[in-house]
Amino acid sequence: MTDHEKQIDGPSAGRWPASERPMSLGLMVPISEGAAFGGTPRFSDIVEMAKVAKDVGFEALWFADHFIFGSEAEGYRGVWECWTMMAAAAAAVPDIQIGSLVACTGFRNPGVIAKMAEVIDEVSQGRFILGLGAGWHEPEYDMFGFPFDHRVTRFEEAIEIIYPLLREGRADRQGRYYAAHRAVNLPRGPRPGGPPILVGSTSPRMLGILVRYADAWNTVWHKSAEVIPPKIEQVRRACEDMGRDFSTLVLTAGGNIAMAGYQGARPDPIEGDDDAKAAAIAGFRDLGIRHYVCGLDPCTPASIAQFARVIELLDQSAAVRS
Question: Are 315 and 21 in contact (CB under 8 A)?
Answer without folding.
Answer: yes
